């Protein structure tokens, strides 16, 4: 067991023991995983986009029943009911609010006025500069190696850009799974690392065993980047389904998107008018076609098929490139301790200045 203490601006800001974040993955980052990560000393983030508002409140309370450690909730900033979800965070005394997209200045102010730490995820320097100017407390910077929706700039290029551009703590994401990566991120000036795929592949994750087995069998070359799921770059495991999506025509893709939009509406309790409003919010400022907005419903429902139902033949499996390097399923406690032990060994192995 490692006794290494690495206090950083992230540990001070979030009140956690270790500079490690478990990211808010839809259908994956539920109460069990989040509380296990929090109890291990990391910052666990609950994914809320696929929940109703009532389910979110219930999930937050379940996490609180499992741990006394700080944790966060991830929100979609462009969701029509984002205000209601923010109110749940405030009412329940959640420590951190994270966002997959840049929240508005007003949303940031509302959270900060309530004492909530605001940490948006960004994929470009200009986005980090914008949210920092609006009062965000920290940012998660995800490079192109990361799973799910991602950009095309590598972490090793994007991270130092953002560190040099903003004065708030920067958390590195995309390509991290061990203690060597943590030390590397800190050397770039980051305040910690955020990991998704590595926490997905733990014994505390509720992802079905058959799906975990597909991840563990994957090589680096089995992780691909496609725009065929929802029109935006999305990193995931290559499967027969993904290959089929790549070959599919526009009409069949649109019909599938319509079915998934209806299913997603039922899953989240959204009204048709709210679905349209959220579509307009997504389209605004992102230069998306209406087809791309419609395709957006594909992602949560295809992820649900695999991450909840275990149907690797019917669902997609978001994955960072590090999936090809992971071959075991430790508990969150074992994982965090291992990362800190590896970080300690890495630091000790570094040559002394002037040696």
TrEMBL record:
Q: What Pfam families does UniProt report for this protein, alphabetically? A: NMO
Name the UniProt key words of this record, in alphabetical order. Flavoprotein, FMN, Monooxygenase, Oxidoreductase
- Key word Oxidoreductase present in the record? yes
Q: Tell me which domain of life the UniProt entry assigns to the organism this sequence originates from.
A: Bacteria
Q: Which InterPro entries match?
A: Aldolase_TIM, NMO
- Keyword Flavoprotein on entry: yes
Protein name (Swiss-Prot/TrEMBL): Nitronate monooxygenase
């Amino acid at each position: 067991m490692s006794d290494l203490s690495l206090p950083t601006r992230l540990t001070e800001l979030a009140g956690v023991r270790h500079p490690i974040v478990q990211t808010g993955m839809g259908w994956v980052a539920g109460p069990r995983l989040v509380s296990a990560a929090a109890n291990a000393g990391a910052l666990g983030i609950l994914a809320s986009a696929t929940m109703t508002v009532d389910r979110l409140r219930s999930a937050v309370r379940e996490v609180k029943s499992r741990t006394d450690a700080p944790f966060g909730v991830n929100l979609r900033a462009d969701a029509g009911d984002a205000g209601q979800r923010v109110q749940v965070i405030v009412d329940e005394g959640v420590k951190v609010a994270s966002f997959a997209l840049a929240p508005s200045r007003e949303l940031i102010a509302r959270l900060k006025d309530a004492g909530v730490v605001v940490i948006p995820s960004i994929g470009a320097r200009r986005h980090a500069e914008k949210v920092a100017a609006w009062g965000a407390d920290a940012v998660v910077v995800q490079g192109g190696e990361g799973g799910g929706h991602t950009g095309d700039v590598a972490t090793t290029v994007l991270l130092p850009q953002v560190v040099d551009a903003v004065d708030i703590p920067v958390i590195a994401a995309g390509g991290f799974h061990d203690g060597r990566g943590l030390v590397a991120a800190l050397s770039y000036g980051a305040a910690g690392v955020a990991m998704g795929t590595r926490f997905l592949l733990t014994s505390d994750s509720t992802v079905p065993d058959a799906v975990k087995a597909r991840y563990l069998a994957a090589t680096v070359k089995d992780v691909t980047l496609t725009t065929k799921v929802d029109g935006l770059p999305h990193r995931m495991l290559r499967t027969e389904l993904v290959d089929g999506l790549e070959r599919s025509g526009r009409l069949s893709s649109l019909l599938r998107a319509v079915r998934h939009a209806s299913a997603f509406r039922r899953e989240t309790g959204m009204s048709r008018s709210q679905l349209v409003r959220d579509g307009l919010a997504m389209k605004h400022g992102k230069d998306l076609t209406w087809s791309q907005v419609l395709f957006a419903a594909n992602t949560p429902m295809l992820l649900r098929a695999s991450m909840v139902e275990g149907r690797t033949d019917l669902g997609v499996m978001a994955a960072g490139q590090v999936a090809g390097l992971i071959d075991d399923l430790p508990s969150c406690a074992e994982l965090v301790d291992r990362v800190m032990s590896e970080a300690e060994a890495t630091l000790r192995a570094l040559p002394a200045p002037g040696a």
